[in-house]
Amino acid sequence: MMVFGVELTILNVCCALVTLVIGAIVGLGILLYLFVYFTTGVCKSQKRMEGKTVIVTGCTSGIGKETARDLAKRGARVIMACRNVEAANKLKDEFVKESGNNNIVVRKLDLASFKSIREFAAQINKEEQRLDVLIHNAGTAELWRKAVTEDGLEMTMGTNMYGPFLLTHLLIDLLKRSAPSRIVVVASEFYHLGSLNLNNPNPINSLPGYLYYVSKYANIVHTLELARRLEGTNVTANCLHPGVIDSGIWKSVPIPLSWGLKLLMAMFAKTPEQGAQTTLHVAVSEEVEGVTGKYFLDCRPYGLTRGVKDPSKGKKYWEICEELVKLQPTDPKI
């Protein structure tokens, strides 16, 4: 009987410990959820955008979709620059119906293809009289497979960094003619997990998942150098962290990792609408008028590490990017 009693005592203690651990995890989860909820920035600007033209890349899902939706409601001429034209056209009809704004167009753009980027830019420069805001939202995360673009660039870096670099160059004259105008780059706080190797800017043999972080680091380096080069033009360049978003970028994560990720997303991630708020703030808010070379988080300027802000690194990387995207003598210069 004594042994049986000891076993019951041990069992009771184990149950109590398990209950305490579960309670602590649940309590921590609740605290983290409340922290995310109450610190999520909101774009408070009511600014209307009639007469303004905005390009949003990658806006068939996630925060890009919600960014385009909001801008349509503000009355902007929204150019939906997307790889999947069919999906974009369906969304266009949805946005028109919701907003009553018929000034929404879809244009084909594949940021993993220099040919597509040049065709898109040529069409925009031919058809559009102005460009007030260029939002670099599109992105990819090749988490497990190694992939290379048709131009020989690693897919994640090509789509997230080098494609936007080339597109900005090709549209810069239109942005300057439309000044004051803004360039908005969606980066990420995950840049802390990456670093930029200037001796290997096209890391086709690196781990694909890691390169997402590298591309976000590169986005920030690019934006800061872009802002320096655009001083005095009345064209501003800023970047931002949208938050951890429950979006399609994580869809390639395999089981069983996807199960844990889905749970974390459900508990702590922002919705796409919440995630779009900082992009919208930087794109339209009166508070950001004339502000350039800054990094925003939850609709507020936020600090960056010393390394990512290094002007010498920015200048050198810019020159490397010019070579990688094969800028032509006839292309606009920044």
Task: Explain how this protein is built.
The chain has 334 residues and is an alpha/beta fold. It is built from ten helices and eight strands. Residues 253-260 have low confidence and may be disordered.
Radius of gyration: 23 Å
**Amount of helix:** 40-55%
Name the strands of the widest sheet in spatial order: 3-2-1-4-5-6-7-8
Give the termini distance in whole angstroms: 86 Å
Number of strands: 8
Q: Tell me the major beta sheet.
A: 8 strands, mixed
Backbone shape = globular
Beta-strand percentage range: 5-15%
Using brief descriptors, characterize the structure shown.
334 residues; alpha/beta; eight-stranded mixed beta sheet; 49% helix
Summarize the SSE layout with pairings.
Layout: H1 2-39, E1 53-57, H2 62-73, E2 77-82, H3 85-99, E3 104-108, H4 114-127, E4 133-136, H5 155-177, E5 181-186, H6 208-229, E6 235-241, H7 257-268, H8 272-275, H9 277-284, E7 295-297, E8 300-301, H10 311-324
Parallel strand pairs: 1-2, 1-4, 2-3, 4-5, 5-6, 6-7
Antiparallel strand pairs: 7-8
Helix pairs in contact: 2-3, 4-5, 5-6, 6-10
